[in-house]
Every structure is written in C-alpha cells, then in structure tokens.
Design brief:
Blueprint: H1 2-28, E1 45-49, H2 53-64, E2 68-72, H3 115-128, E3 135-136, E4 140-147, E5 156-163, E6 166-173, E7 175-178, E8 201-204, E9 218-222, H4 226-238, E10 242-247, E11 254-255, E12 257-258, E13 261-262, H5 263-267, H6 270-273, H7 283-290, H8 294-310, E14 335-336, H9 338-345, E15 349-353, E16 356-360, E17 364-367, E18 372-374, E19 377-380, E20 401-402, E21 405-406, E22 420-422, H10 431-446, H11 454-471, H12 486-497, H13 508-511, H14 522-529
Helix pairs in contact: 2-10, 10-12
C-alpha cells in the first residue's frame, strides 16, 4: 500500500512539474512582432463565405496579407453555429484551445465557455482587426458563378447571393474562400410515420430557445452527440424531466475528467495522438505502429481508464460497441460532464438502443425494439443533413459532393477547382489552429511558396479518401473531419509551409497538451522562412 501511494504521489508530482514548466514556457515566450500589413507583391479581391469562426479568421489573415476581403454571411449576425444554438450550449474543449493564437482573452475563454461568451470573444476579435466593415450580413450565398480563363488556373468568380428575397450578383473575385463550415446545413429531422398527428412537440436541439419547455415533462432525446447529451443532462438535472435517450448505436463518450484529470491533458499531447491511426504519419508514428500490440495495448489502457471513470456496466445500452476509443475519432465524438454518467448509472436518464418506428396517439412513441415510451416532447439531436455546404459550387462540380462530405487535398483545396479554397473544413478539437494554419497554407500557395502538382494533389486526395472510407466510421462530415488527429494534420501543413512542428522544448513537446498558444509565432516564422523584409 505504501509503495502504491508513493508511486501515485511521484506521478502527480511529475505531472505538476511538467505543467508548471509548460505554463512558465508559454508565459515567458515573447510574441514575435510582425507587420500589421504584410505585402508579398500581390493583392487579390477575395470573397469569404461565412462569418463564423472560420470566416472571421480567414478575413483577418487575408486582410493582414494585403488582400481586399468581402465576407458574405447569411444571417443578420456573426458567429455561425454559436449564434444559433440552444440555451446553455458550451464548448466541450477548454476555452484556451478555442482562441486564435494571436488574440487571447483568458478571463473570457476559460474552462468551457458558453455560447454567449464565445460570441463576445468573436466580437472582440472582429473589432480588434476591423473585420465588421468587411461583412455583408443577411446575404445567403446560393451559387458561385465561374468565369473561366485561358488556362485551368485562371478562373474568377461571381458570388450570387439572396438578400431581401432578391438574388444579387456580386463583383468579380479573384479567389473565393468557402468558410461556411460542415455544420451549416439544414438540421436533420428524419421523416417518421405519425409525426403529423403527434399530439406532443417535436423539435431539433438547434431550435430550442427556452429550456423551460422541458419542465416536468416526459422528454425523449434522439441521438448521442454533444447536443443530445446536453439536453438529456439539462432535463434530468435542472428541469425535473423524465428522460429517455434513444440511439441507434452506442459509442465512446469522453468523460470531462478521466480519473481526476481533464481529458485534454491525456488526449491532446503528441504522446497520445501519435497512437491514433491516421492517413498521414511521420517517422516516429510509423515506428510505433510497427511494434506488435503496442498501439492496441495503449488504447486498451485508455479505454480502461475511461470505463473506470464512467462506471457504465458492460450490459448497459450505452456501453461502447467499438473495441477501441480511437475508432470513434470523428466529428460526432462528444464529451460529457461526470453527472451525465451518474444519471445514466442510476437510471435517471434511461437509454434505449433503438430507433423510433412510429409516433403514436396520446404522446407516445413506438421504438423498433417494440417498446413504447411516453413523450410529451421529442428532441432530435441528430445533427445536420447529409451533404456539404459546398453545394453552392456550380452544378458541373456536383460529382465532388459525396454522402460523407467533400474530400479535399490537405482539407483545403480540390484540384478541379480553380481559385477556390476551403477554410474550417479541417474541424478538430482545437479548431482555431486549423483555421489559422489553413489560411497560412492558402497564402503560401497563392504567393507561390508552395506549388503541389495537379497529379500530386489528386493522388494524395484519393489515397486519403480511400483510407478514411476504410478506417473511419461513416458520418455526413467524414471527408472533412480531422477530430483528434489534429497533431497529424497540423504537422502536415507546417511541413508543406516549411515551419517546424516542434512547438515546445524537449520533453514538453511530446508530453504536454497542444493548444492555440503553441502557434502564436507562426507568422513570424513564415516571414523569416521566406526572407521577408
């Protein structure tokens, strides 16, 4: 017992020392100054589609590099999904990982900030970099019209958007950045017999405006993503709801704390993400995967810790079907507070691994497993419809759209599209870093510092496409998902640009979590790389 206690104390002390070193390193590293306006000899007329986290980031970066930017936003405000979500919605990552690397407000973006705090942060960012005047609000882009040039790389674009029930054609743009995100499609509420005559309420999580509609009611929550878990937890904890969760298949859910340690410390460091199977692997990762039993043994250990934390018995409907946690690495992966698992285990939240077969009279629903449950309100936490927001492309490019998204080279461009780029189609737990590195990659290509051939891009794109279809579970955004493989993706982009992926000194780089601050000097490093004066 003494030895076990001593070893645990040494482990905690080691973690504390590493964390202290990490904090000291970050807060003693200077912000390398870069020019407010960077002129690389070319100024393009740029259209950005969407004013969410990806669109705002794209606008800032391209303005900084002396391009003329116009942002088209379909809603009357900025913020993307954060301006159109349910009360109480919050970030499942830590706030300091959801900040742009060169603009931090730690007091606002701490722990797991709620939607209104994220919107306040985005407004401060937009004001700091004078983005608001570049945004055309209430401008829903319906189509991009291509003006083909003399060569396949010379296309220009007209943005056709709907404003006040009238389709308006914009000016001509040299380059278009599609930044409307993989979650901007219409919500997904499946068509089920009996819906039209159902006496209760049917609503999607995104359309909930007041949580009091859960008060003292029989609530059926359909789905097992972040929004479904939130609504079930809110109902059971705050609104005296009798909650049933209905889902087709069970999956790994990340507990917010794993054996007392926040999951980001365990899952966001290279020492963990190196064990995640990925299309892109560096030499270190290739070596790990050659050692028999090592990778699966590692994930068996992680799975043990998660199961030990959640305490869900093996015969419970929520017990994960996949053998290893990494198999659930996709956009739909969700984390949950520990009270969610308490409600699951004491049956406050009841679970049915099934689907709704039919809506019945008297506020009941029939499940495909034959059970009938009461439902004053049925809440669908079933995400958005299949397909990509890239449907705004001309019809001749419809073949690029698949049922699991649009596949892109580096998650940023498609070789068949001239002067079109994508931002935010590399969604992960530290999304802002993907936005910023993606923008830097686009800028590097536009200004001629990287120039992959058409064949190189198509070959890589197809290889990754086939890899994902074989190794990743299906989801509508499978083609765009980076999820917990963000370290692999970011290294790939930095390698293309010519910047080191080693962002921290010595062992800290491998054993401490990665976040936005690790990339705060990438512009300085890029300008040094290209000998900018």
């Amino acid at each position: 017992f003494y030895l076990r206690l001593k070893n645990k104390a040494m482990l905690l002390l080691s973690l504390f020392v590493l964390y202290l070193a990490y904090i000291l390193y970050h807060y003693t590293q200077p912000n390398r100054s870069v020019p407010k306006n960077i002129d690389l000899g070319k100024s393009l007329n740029i259209a950005v589609i969407g004013a969410g986290t990806s669109g705002l980031g794209a606008a800032k970066w391209f303005k900084q590099f002396n391009h003329k930017v116009t942002v088209y936003e379909k809603s009357p405000t900025f913020g993307g999904i954060w301006s159109n979500t349910y009360p109480g919605s919050s970030l499942q990552s830590y706030g300091d990982e959801y900040q742009y690397s060169d603009f931090t407000i730690d007091d606002l973006m701490k722990e797991h900030p709620k939607a209104e705090m994220i919107l306040e942060y985005l407004e401060a960012y937009a004001n700091r970099f004078d983005i608001m005047d570049n945004i055309v609000f209430d401008a829903a882009v319906v189509k991009l019209k291509e003006l083909k040039g003399e060569t396949v790389n010379d296309s220009k674009w007209i943005v056709q958007y709907e404003q006040k029930d009238e389709v308006v054609s914009s000016q001509v743009y040299d380059f278009v950045l599609i930044a409307n995100g993989q979650f901007s499609n219409k919500v997904n509420i499946p068509s089920i017999p009996g819906m039209d005559t159902f006496e209760g309420e049917i609503v999607h999580t995104r359309h909930i405006e007041d949580m009091s509609l859960l008060d003292d009611r029989n609530v059926v929550v359909v789905g097992l993503g972040k929004s479904a878990i939130d609504i079930a937890t809110f109902g059971a904890r705050d609104h005296n709801s009798n909650v049933h969760m209905v889902f087709r298949s069970s999956r790994w859910i990340i507990p917010m704390y794993i054996m007392g340690l926040h999951f980001r410390f365990l899952l966001f460091m290279k020492a963990t993400t190196d064990f995640v199977p990925s299309f892109y692997q560096n030499a270190r990762q290739k070596l790990l995967f050659k050692i028999p039993g090592l990778v699966n043994g590692f994930w068996t250990m992680i799975g043990f810790l998660i199961k030990k934390t959640t305490k869900i018995p093996s015969d419970h409907p929520l017990y994960p079907e996949a053998s290893y946690f990494y198999q659930e690495a996709r956009s739909a992966i969700a984390s949950a507070n520990l009270d969610f698992f308490e409600y699951i285990n004491d049956n406050t939240i009841k679970c049915e691994k099934s689907e709704i077969e039919e809506f019945l009279p008297e506020r009941r629903v029939l499940l495909k497993n034959g059970k009938i449950i009461d439902g004053d309100i049925v809440v669908f936490g079933t995400g958005v419809q299949n397909g990509s927001s890239a449907s705004i492309l001309p019809d001749e490019y419809n073949h690029l759209q698949e049922d699991d998204g649009i596949y892109l080279y580096r998650h940023l461009i498609h070789p068949e599209l001239s002067n079109i780029g994508f931002v935010g189609y590399n969604h992960s737990f530290i999304h802002m870093v993907g936005v910023e590195l993606g923008c830097l990659w686009h800028l590097s290509k536009i200004h001629g510092f990287i120039n992959p051939s058409h064949k190189e891009m198509m070959d890589s794109l197809q290889e990754e496409r086939l890899w994902k279809k074989e190794h990743n579970f299906f989801e509508p955004a499978r083609g765009n998902s980076v999820d917990i493989k963000f370290n692999h993706h970011h290294e790939q982009l930095l390698k293309d640009i010519g910047i080191s992926n080693t962002r921290k000194p010595l062992l800290l780089d491998y054993f401490m979590r990665y976040g936005s601050l690790d990339y705060k000097n990438v512009v300085h490093e890029f300008l040094k790389q290209i000998n900018y004066k």
